[in-house]
Automatic annotation (TrEMBL):
Pfam families: Acetyltransf_1 (PF00583)
Sequence intervals crossing the membrane: 95-128
The protein's name in its UniProt record: N-acetylaspartate synthetase
N-acetyltransferase domain boundaries: 119-265
Origin species: Monopterus albus (Swamp eel)
Length: 278
């Protein structure tokens, strides 16, 4: 995503033992199997690991269609999440909508219209959520996600990986290096909804951390507008620490019109994982 640079505040240290234990470099693939990690070290069991585990490898040109599909579907899930789930975290907006409902009754004296007002407000929220997120998707699909090879595979210090399960691409993640502050940004992480709950997202995240350490980056950063608590728990489980949040973040495609401000709100969270001291 074309997001603003996260601020660097909190630190999480990774000890040397973890660094030394990391397998592979940028041009290597990673075998991962949560229930059969011992099999990965046993050549006789390699076939079983491939069948039952997840194989994380670098992006290839033939993956483009599946990668774009996973990315698109993952982002589109944020339409109802932003419209409805996010509202539960916004007491001020809830109060405003309740006030509008009461005002509708006093202005119209119609119980029917008053009862319909909350449904109308939710419908408008969904409309603006879909409108803004579609605009964001259009931007992403015509920039880095239009040519992953050129954007992530060719530049030094960046890479893009896919998670493959039973020969099918089921997850994606990218790393984009930034020379100005010697950090790498974790981007575009998404897992096919049919294959979640298998630890694939965590394996993809670890691959980015391994890449960052092997390439001597000082830290890994990320920014997210995810509403679901599970996404934030995932980052924390990988060692990331929340460094800041913004309620006034502007996604590409947002007009910031009064109606859009009223019916679409988004929270941008910044995370950082410190790999070593400068």
């Amino acid at each position: 995503m074309h997001l603003s640079s996260p601020e660097m505040v909190c630190e999480t240290k990774i000890v040397a033992d973890e660094h030394d234990a990391i397998p592979g470099t940028k041009k290597e693939s990673l075998m991962w199997s949560s229930p059969q990690s011992s099999a990965a070290q046993n050549p006789a069991a390699a076939k079983d690991v491939w069948k039952d585990g997840v194989f994380i490898r670098e992006f290839e040109r033939g993956d483009q269609e599946e990668v774009r599909r996973i990315f698109y579907e993952g982002i589109m899930e944020r339409v109802p999440n932003s419209a409805f789930r996010r509202l539960r975290q916004q007491p001020k907006t809830q109060f405003l909508y309740a006030l509008l409902t009461v005002m509708c009754f006093f202005m119209t004296k119609s119980f029917t219209l008053t009862c319909c007002t909350p449904l109308i407000l939710m419908g408008v929220r969904y409309y603006y959520s879909r409108k803004v997120i579609h605009s964001y998707l259009d931007c992403a699909l015509h920039t880095d996600m239009a040519d992953i090879e050129a954007y992530y595979m060719k530049p030094t210090g960046s890479c893009f990986w896919v998670a493959v399960l039973n020969g099918r691409v089921v997850g994606i993640v990218a790393a984009q290096g930034r020379e100005d502050d010697n950090t790498v940004e974790l981007r575009r992480m998404s897992v096919d909804s049919r294959y979640r709950g298998k630890g694939i997202a965590k394996a993809l995240g670890r691959r980015v951390l391994e890449f960052a350490m092997r390439n001597n980056y000082a830290a890994v950063v990320l920014g997210t507008t995810a509403v679901k608590l599970a996404a934030h728990k995932l980052y924390e489980s990988l060692g990331f620490r929340l460094t800041g949040q913004s309620e006034d973040y502007r996604l590409p495609g947002m007009s910031r019109s009064p109606l859009e401000r009223l019916f679409f709100q988004i929270r941008y969270s910044r995370y950082r994982l410190e790999l070593r001291e400068e």
